[in-house]
């Protein structure tokens, strides 16, 4: 932590644009206008037990209702809805079928080579029951952990729901991870089975998933694993280990469609999921049944407010928390139609997303700033070729969105009429925490706006004291919420220390610290300023990375920027910016000077980069987040140390070293 005990982060960016919800947006919304939002906030605050208790009874099906809402007698270990019995797969499937929605499409899936599958709620329920029975047949019992290492095929969602149905927690490992990363996660969780595929399609290539599983398991390096269930996807040749490996298409279809959902305790584990690893070694985040289900359910409803006939698409991979909460559990718990897409935009098919929106008439589109910046880089000509009129709401998640990227998204993709929901949250929070509600909260480009009802977020200094308006500090959450992580898998002490004891208690209560720096403006809006680990200390001024990066991105030639500090004898730290340019822009001496001047005029001389390095790409996690930690080492001329297993492309580091 900084030696400056007030540890405030100075703000340099001023963004004044405000977009009010249109009459049309307000009229169709379930939460209409600011007053209604405020009313919800007030009732959640004045009586959280009543607020969440009612929400849980209304939002979920219970085999047996709970006795208590929140038990916070042993902080930071919360218990929500104790005494209750419920099942997430029941909430996502059975109850909709029972209510006559069996013929509604649950999942529209589009495969990378272009095939489309539409699965109704009734069909999905049957597939989930069959898969659940298959898991039982290979010896999986309630409480056993199952690792998933899957391409983006419907079977991934089916497998997650099947695990939930029999009470076997899942641990989804992103299909783009290496066999070493898979092995670490299998061993950390002591997975008893793995569900995978022969291979998957990714950016015009085939990735051999089963081979990677075989190497992860080789030499008895994962002794907990007893069986491997393999979906046939690419039909490449793979090796099969009899007695351990099973084909999905042989085992699953032969099962009965009858598999009653296990009555789970509210606090039974639903899944373990590892964080993206932007700042260090990933942590195994544990989520439990009822609280997580409720949080995914409510936040999906509040933010996306999907109508019965609407089609919703989140472009994440199921390997990330966004895929868990907003491709699978949130949409299905609400009985919505969710799109799953196996492909990603790439040079051979740059308009892939827009093509999908046009063909499936998608109404709600939820993606990441990294994708939006890539689209900006390749120019508006590409999306302009498609009919995107079906869109009604746009969302973003994963990183701070630079105001210029926000404006581009609204203009080019949203035709200047779709509200944008910039949703701030984390693997640890289970679901969105800070976001506009489209019919209630005016938006400002680059701000995630206001906390959802029941979320008591605040900005404090290192002593836990609230900071003034527009002063940067630590983003904290002061009251437990249903979707909060329950522990770090196998390491409760790390859970306590990294999240609840990083900052001192406030008024005697532990507070959750999220790792991010932020400020609030005069309207109480939250502006995420970047990770506190990444804060730069220039001549005693502590600057967040986001504001300097946004100033760079607001220059016509710049597509993407990452800013880090480098040790400097005089200033403490000097500012080094790594910049990628829009296609067609020339990197020359003049642009270098222009960019420095641009930052000075946009936000002030204090933030002027001392050094700018042009590059073709930035190091990112496999979920698309910039890894400033690696750039910091490069800028200082040091060896890149620490965990790099989550790095998307190792070549990027080599390129940057040159
Ligand atoms: P690790 O904790 O292992 O370093 P990670 O924090 O990248 O990995 P995730 O849980 O996937 O893992 O990401 C959560 C983080 O993403 C947040 O703490 C925040 O820094 C960033 N983030 C997510 N959404 C937003 C948003 N809308 N605005 C700003 N930042 C965001
Ligand atoms: Mg994190």
UniProtKB/TrEMBL annotation:
ATP binds at residues 398-400, 422-427, 516, 531, 542. The keyword Isomerase does not apply. Its EC number is 6.2.1.1. GO terms for molecular function: acetate-CoA ligase activity; AMP binding; ATP binding; metal ion binding. It catalyses: acetate + ATP + CoA = acetyl-CoA + AMP + diphosphate. Residues 37-92 form the Acetyl-coenzyme A synthetase N-terminal domain. Acetylated. Deacetylation by the SIR2-homolog deacetylase activates the enzyme. One of its GO terms (cellular component) is cytosol. Mg(2+) binds at residues 553, 555, 558. Residues 547-625 form the AMP-binding enzyme C-terminal domain. CoA binds at residues 202-205, 322, 539. GO terms for biological process: acetyl-CoA biosynthetic process from acetate. The modification N6-acetyllysine is found at residue 625. Keywords: Acetylation, ATP-binding, Ligase, Magnesium, Metal-binding, Nucleotide-binding. Its cofactor is Mg(2+). Residues 95-486 form the AMP-dependent synthetase/ligase domain. It is an enzyme of class 6 (ligase). Belongs to the ATP-dependent AMP-binding enzyme family. Catalyzes the conversion of acetate into acetyl-CoA (AcCoA), an essential intermediate at the junction of anabolic and catabolic pathways. AcsA undergoes a two-step reaction. In the first half reaction, AcsA combines acetate with ATP to form acetyl-adenylate (AcAMP) intermediate. In the second half reaction, it can then transfer the acetyl group from AcAMP to the sulfhydryl group of CoA, forming the product AcCoA. This is Acetyl-coenzyme A synthetase. It comes from Prochlorococcus marinus (strain SARG / CCMP1375 / SS120). The lineage of its organism: Bacteria, Bacillati, Cyanobacteriota, Cyanophyceae, Synechococcales.
């Amino acid at each position: 932590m900084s030696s400056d005990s007030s540890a405030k982060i100075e703000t340099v960016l001023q963004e004044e644009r405000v977009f009010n919800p249109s009459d049309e947006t307000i009229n169709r919304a379930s939460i209409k206008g600011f007053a209604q939002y405020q009313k919800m906030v007030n009732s959640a605050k004045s009586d959280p037990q009543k607020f969440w208790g009612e929400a849980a009874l209304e939002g979920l099906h219970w085999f047996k209702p709970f006795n208590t809402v929140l038990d916070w007698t042993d902080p930071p270990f919360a218990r929500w809805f104790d005494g209750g019995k419920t099942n997430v797969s029941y909430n996502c499937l059975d109850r909709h079928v029972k209510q006559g929605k069996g013929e509604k499409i649950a999942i529209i899936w589009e495969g990378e080579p272009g095939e489309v599958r539409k699965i109704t709620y009734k069909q999905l329920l049957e597939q989930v029951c069959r898969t659940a029975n298959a898991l039982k047949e290979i010896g999986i019992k309630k409480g056993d952990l199952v690792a998933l290492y899957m391409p983006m095929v419907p079977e991934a969602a089916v497998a997650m729901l099947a695990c939930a149905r029999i009470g076997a927690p899942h641990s989804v490992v992103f299909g783009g991870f290496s066999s070493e990363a898979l092995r670490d996660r299998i061993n950390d969780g002591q997975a008893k089975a793995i569900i995978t595929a022969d291979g998957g399609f990714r950016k015009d290539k085939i990735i051999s998933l089963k081979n990677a599983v075989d190497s992860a398991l080789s030499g008895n390096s994962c002794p907990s694993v007893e069986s491997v269930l393999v979906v046939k996807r690419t039909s490449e040749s793979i090796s099969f280990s009899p007695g351990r490996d099973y084909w999905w298409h042989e085992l699953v279809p032969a099962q009965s469609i009858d598999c009653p959902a296990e009555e789970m305790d509210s606090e039974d584990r639903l899944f373990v999921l590892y964080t993206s690893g932007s700042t260090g070694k990933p942590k195994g985040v544990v989520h439990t049944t009822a609280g997580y289900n409720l949080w995914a359910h409510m936040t999906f409803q509040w933010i996306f407010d999907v109508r019965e006939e609407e089609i919703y698409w989140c472009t994440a991979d199921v390997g990330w928390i966004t895929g868990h909460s907003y491709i699978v559990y949130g949409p299905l718990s609400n009985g919505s139609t969710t799109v799953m897409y196996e492909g990603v935009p790439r040079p051979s098919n740059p308009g892939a997303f827009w093509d999908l929106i046009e063909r499936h008439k998608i109404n709600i589109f939820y993606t990441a700033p990294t994708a939006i910046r890539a689209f900006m880089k390749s120019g508006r000509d590409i999306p302009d070729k498609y009919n995107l009129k079906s869109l009604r709401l746009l969302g973003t998640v994963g990183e701070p969105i630079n105001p210029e990227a926000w404006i581009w998204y609204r203009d080019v993709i949203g035709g200047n009429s779709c509200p944008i929901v910039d949703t701030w949250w984390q693997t640890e929070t289970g679901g969105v925490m800070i976001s506009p509600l489209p019919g209630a909260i005016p938006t400002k480009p680059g701000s995630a706006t206001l906390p959802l009802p029941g979320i008591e977020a605040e900005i404090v200094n290192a002593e836990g004291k609230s900071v003034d308006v527009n002063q940067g500090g630590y983003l904290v959450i002061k009251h437990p919420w249903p979707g909060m992580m329950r522990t770090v898998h196998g390491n409760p002490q790390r859970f306590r220390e990294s999240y609840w004891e990083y900052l001192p208690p406030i008024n005697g209560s532990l507070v959750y610290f999220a790792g991010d720096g932020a400020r609030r403006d005069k309207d109480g809006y939250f502006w995420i300023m970047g990770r506190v680990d990444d804060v730069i200390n220039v001549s005693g001024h502590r600057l967040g990375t986001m504001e300097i990066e946004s100033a760079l991105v607001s220059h016509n030639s710049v597509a993407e920027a990452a800013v880090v500090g480098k040790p400097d004898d005089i200033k403490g730290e000097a500012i080094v910016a790594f910049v990628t340019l829009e296609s067609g822009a020339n990197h020359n001496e003049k642009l270098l000077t222009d960019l420095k001047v641009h930052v000075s005029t946009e936000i002030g001389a204090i933030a002027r980069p001392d050094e700018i390095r042009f590059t073709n790409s930035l190091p990112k996690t496999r979920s698309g987040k910039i890894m400033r930690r690696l750039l910091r080492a490069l800028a200082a001329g040091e060896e890149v140390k620490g965990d790099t297993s989550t790095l998307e492309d190792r070549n990027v580091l080599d390129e940057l070293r040159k």
